[in-house]
Design a protein that fits this description.
Order of helices and strands: EEEHHEEEEEHHEEHHHEEHHHHHEEEHEH
Number of helices: 14
Structural class: alpha+beta
Radius of gyration: 26 Å
Shape: elongated
Helix content: 25-40%
């Protein structure tokens, strides 16, 4: 039994933003949402390049090597972004999320990178089927904060992975389509102002995809829509849905961006994917068909994305206005500016104040906290915390107790042990 998609999509710039950096494509076999980032570094161009590149997959997938074909096309889109950056260094920092599904009439092959999301409503059950590539999601995965705390965290939009980096490793998975499934792809312009409960209610109550899309976009706008809002809904149906024109909206539909003189887009618009591949290979960056880069864990990608975030300006401000207490290279309790992470030799922190108190003087619990990084809201709070941790008072509960001075009637004094420290 071959299934079909009945779809609808809207991309709105929102209430606050002057332009739209989101892009969306919906077709009978392929649906995708991309959320560009980079501000003046052309996030709108990044999302437009990716959507115009991957949209050519809106055909029945091949019987074999579907995952490889999908991975190759995403890699090609990433190379197109990197070429633009090489040609125009002012665009360094441009990038985009991508959440897309390629449908063969029974199975969905999904690719995901960034914090745009995919949800599924099946038999009344609502679930998120993507995992955000964000700093707060990493904290949730490590058990450092709860999912509820992540929703309110001031850095909830800080991305760890996105297209546009020199090396990317999207997540891939396969999902079986079931008649009656309702799929939602969206940018964080929806999931920020609209709760999961309200999203689920809209999906459950709307009779058609267009009704659901209009309801969700309307809710985001009523909530203030501080970001661009892009919503795509596709129903899995048994019967022929009838004639449906492909939908391309947002930055990808902007004529100025669609006619960009990148090496990939003109060839795609002429219907010549082979020429696009030749252009990519001429840059010496092409990967062999069917071969995906492997062996890179998320921390390597994090290192690349930290550089992207710093280059984007906003990330640099965020890093340089946050502080934590940690351990210096010389082993002393110290104040750092930035993030308590070091990945593949790349540090996102700078030493501000180094005390003379060795970290090994601290009790075990404090040493564990120092290894993770004790965050502070300001430099003043960091200095106060440092003073408390390193206070030489004998009663400082953060430090191992002072060694006994011994009996004054004798000439001997106990040596310091692992259970005490010398004054």
């Amino acid at each position: 039994m071959s299934l079909h998609l009945r779809y609808a999509a809207i991309s709105d710039r929102g209430v606050v933003r002057q332009g739209n950096q989101d892009s969306v494509y919906a077709g009978s076999h392929f649906i995708a949402v991309a959320d560009g980032m980079g501000g003046m570094a052309a996030g709108d161009l990044a999302s437009a390049i990716v959507i115009n590149t991957v949209a050519r997959l809106d055909v029945p997938p091949p019987e074999e090597s579907v995952a490889d074909e999908l991975a190759d096309t995403v890699a090609e889109a990433n190379r197109a972004i990197r070429r633009l950056v090489a040609d125009d260094p002012d665009k360094e920092g441009m990038g985009t999320t991508l959440t897309a599904l390629w449908f063969d009439g029974e199975w969905f092959n999904m690719v995901h990178i960034g914090d745009s999301r995919a949800y599924r409503m099946r038999d009344g059950a609502f679930e998120q089927i993507t995992v955000d590539d964000t700093y707060v999601q990493m904290l949730v995965d490590e058990g450092r904060i709860t999912a509820e705390e992540a929703e309110r965290h001031p850095q909830r939009s800080l991305l760890l992975r996105a297209l546009g980096a020199s090396e990317v490793e999207p997540a891939f998975q396969t999902l079986k389509g079931v008649p009656g499934d309702r799929l939602l792809l969206c940018s964080d312009g929806l999931t920020g102002p609209v709760s999961d409960a309200d999203i689920a209610l809209a999906l459950q109550s709307a009779a058609t995809p267009i009704e659901a899309v209009e309801s969700l976009v309307g809710q985001a706008l009523e909530a203030g829509a501080p970001d661009n809002v892009t919503v795509l809904i596709a129903d899995v149906v048994e019967g022929d849905p009838g004639e449906q024109a492909p939908i391309i909206a947002g930055a990808a539909a902007d004529a100025r961006l669609a006619e960009s003189d990148t090496a990939v887009l003109p060839a795609i618009k002429r219907g010549d994917p082979a020429e696009a591949d030749e252009e990519a290979e001429s840059d010496g960056e092409a990967e062999p068909k069917g071969k995906r880069r492997g062996g890179r864990v998320w921390r390597t990608v994090l290192a690349c994305l930290i550089v992207l975030v710093l280059a984007a300006g906003g990330g640099l401000w965020w890093v340089r206005t946050h502080y934590f207490i940690g351990v210096s290279d010389s082993g002393n309790i110290s104040v750092f500016r930035g993030m308590p992470v070091e990945v593949a030799g790349v540090e996102a922190a700078w030493l501000e104040i180094e005390s003379s108190r060795a970290a090994e003087d601290a009790v075990d619990d404090v040493q564990d906290d120092l290894d993770e990084g004790i965050t502070a809201d300001s430099i003043e709070d960091a200095e106060s915390e440092l003073a408390e941790l390193t206070d030489a008072a004998a009663t400082n509960e953060h430090l191992v107790p002072l060694c006994s001075s011994g009996d004054s009637s004798t000439d001997t004094q106990p040596a310091a042990t692992a259970d005490c420290r010398e004054s």
